[in-house]
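Bench notes, afternoon.
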Amino acid sequence: MSLAQLAPIEVKEALHVVQPRRLPGYDASPASISLRAVEQSFQVRKGPRLIALSNIDLDIRAGEFLCVVGPSGCGKSSLLSLVAGLAFPSRGEVQVNGRTVTGPGTDRILIFQEHGLFPWLTVGQNVEFGMKMQGVGRRERRERAEQYLQLVHLSKFRDSYIHQLSGGMRQRVAIARALATQPSVLLMDEPFAALDAQTRDMLHDELERIWKQTGCTIVFVTHNVREAVRLGSRVVLITYRPGTIRSQVDVDLPRPRHMDDPRVAKLAGGVLDELREEINKAVAAEYDHV
């Protein structure tokens, strides 16, 4: 039977079996991540210590696309910082490929909603920056920057400055800069939250394609449950403070997925019901402090 004879949803599933080739020259192998009995707490100005994360036990497979959701203030960003080595757990241990995280490393790159690009550098220079810090030679930097700009469809903007780009284009530059250092783990903290729906949907497709081609492990934090189901191999829901893992949902849906797919909406609905309960707890806690 040809693809033309299939129903639209069957066409998507048939196309799903065709996997893109691994990106040439991407030498890093995906890394596994393990958090064991992790607690993260902070001393606040008044009152007892604030416990952001408590008793987090989580294993992330090498090459997995894990999405993390939860109410504001539940510790999602703190979790990324711990894996990135920008913070250390008050208790417990964080490991990447079986080794305890003791600080930042080029094997783990964190991308924020605010992309952190340098406005005084061109697009190409921004992409080369991380490689320059790694000591990569000028010729290889330029070649690799061109490769990753092509990957995010921005090679024609190599000599442009950041203020000349749209928000979606800036995020693509940030992704290219991160990938150019060839990390094993890509950590993303609500990178598409400020974008319009059309740009966000386009970047969903781009990120999924890049994930398949690089094979790197991605941990993606979002407030949007449907976005999490659209992108993730698994969705982890963190409770309101102190943040613990309430549930984990395997997303066993064919790729490519779409935000308006009824199957995505149905699975997201179940996670959203649990998330609403946690949001209500957060709202109640705020009223208690008024």
